[in-house]
Design brief:
PhyH, 7 helices, phytanoyl-CoA dioxygenase, EC 1.14.11.18, globular, Phytyl_CoA_dOase-like, alpha+beta
Length: 333
């Protein structure tokens, strides 16, 4: 038995005896309490996560790892973002998104006009983030050894224009994914600068990953909402929440059913983060027709038809085209 497994056994035995709450300060900028779960279904014993971290993820659905990505790497990602924003390089398949409140403005150019780069799997520099050994070292704790990079984003949350459109509604990432099982999917989200409540840090509802996939749609916000920013229709407004304030290089790993979002950027600067959703290559595609995911499926297919001139592309096809093996073997996906 590994040392981590031995420690886990000791921790679980202790919790069985004490029945007390444990404080998990390493999971976030705030302390989150958790209790002994019945079984550890969300992580593998790889000697990377401590027993306390495994239990914290089991209970809360996220863990925060400090200073995981170097300043040097983040600066390289920032420079590549600037090159793309200035149209100095064209990346196949990349979607450049703008905030709905400035999308049609002729006076906003370059970095200030771009709120998100989505699907950067064909950009060697940005995609290097998805292959960083220290990231994958943690990812395999959630997915197992065969790892696919499925969804890539660099978020450039702009200063809010006054219409509150820099918010991201509370949502579950699984809403966008036609593959399962959910427990073998994880997001790595790295702050590219200091992230705090003032510039719109992530907000999570600890433990919400224990629920099911909820119905999502566009929220009815007066100032409008950005394309594909679907939100959970119903969730308990009194559910405890945690604001994930992070330093540059900090990385949060979270479950695709965890309800999360972000607030407005009330500063004059931009809030950058880079992320990748990973899945075990043992995952499989599902048919979402007739489910709560049908609305996002139709929206994605319409976008693909407009972008590629192909109306026979399925929701599953769009993900299969984007997925890249980053470790192990491609067994199913």
């Amino acid at each position: 038995m590994s040392r981590a497994a031995d420690r886990l056994k000791v921790v679980l035995n202790h919790l069985d005896r004490s029945h007390g709450a444990v404080r998990a300060s390493f999971t976030s900028a705030q302390n989150v309490s958790y209790h002994h779960p019945h079984a550890l279904q969300y992580t593998f014993d790889t000697d990377v996560l401590t027993p306390e971290q495994r239990i914290a993820y089991e209970e809360n659905g996220f863990i925060l790892i400090r200073k995981l990505v170097s300043d040097e790497d983040i600066e390289k990602f920032r420079k590549e973002f600037e090159r793309i924003s200035k149209r100095e390089v064209k990346v196949p398949g990349l979607l450049i998104m703008k905030d709905v409140s400035i999308a049609k403005s002729e006076f906003v150019e370059g970095e200030k006009a771009v709120t998100k780069l989505q699907d950067f799997q064909e950009d060697p520099e940005l995609f290097r983030y998805c292959t960083l050994p220290q990231i994958l070292n943690y990812v395999k704790c959630f997915t197992g050894p065969n790892i696919m990079a499925m969804h890539t984003m660099l978020i450039n949350k702009p200063p809010d224009t006054g219409k509150k459109t820099s918010r991201h509604p509370m949502h579950q990432d699984l809403h966008y994914f036609p593959f399962r099982p959910a427990d073998r999917i994880v997001c790595a989200w790295t702050a590219m600068e200091k992230v705090h409540r003032g510039n719109g840090c992530l907000v999570v509802l600890p433990g919400s990953h224990h629920g099911t996939l909820q119905e999502h749609d566009y929220p009815e916000w007066e100032g409008g909402v950005n394309k594909m920013y679907h939100g959970v229709r119903n969730y308990a407004p009194d559910h405890p929440r945690v604001h994930l304030e992070m330093e540059k290089g900090d990385t949060v790993f979270f479950h695709p059913l965890l309800i999360h979002g972000s607030g407005m950027n009330q500063t004059k600067g931009f809030r950058k983060a880079i992320s990748c959703h990973y899945a075990s290559s043992d995952c499989y595609y599902i048919d979402v027709n007739g489910t709560t995911q049908e609305n996002i499926s139709n929206e994605v297919k319409e976008l693909a038809a407009k972008k590629y001139g192909a109306d026979t592309v399925t929701f599953q096809d769009t993900w299969a085209l984007r997925g890249r093996l980053v470790q192990g073997e491609r067994t199913s996906m």
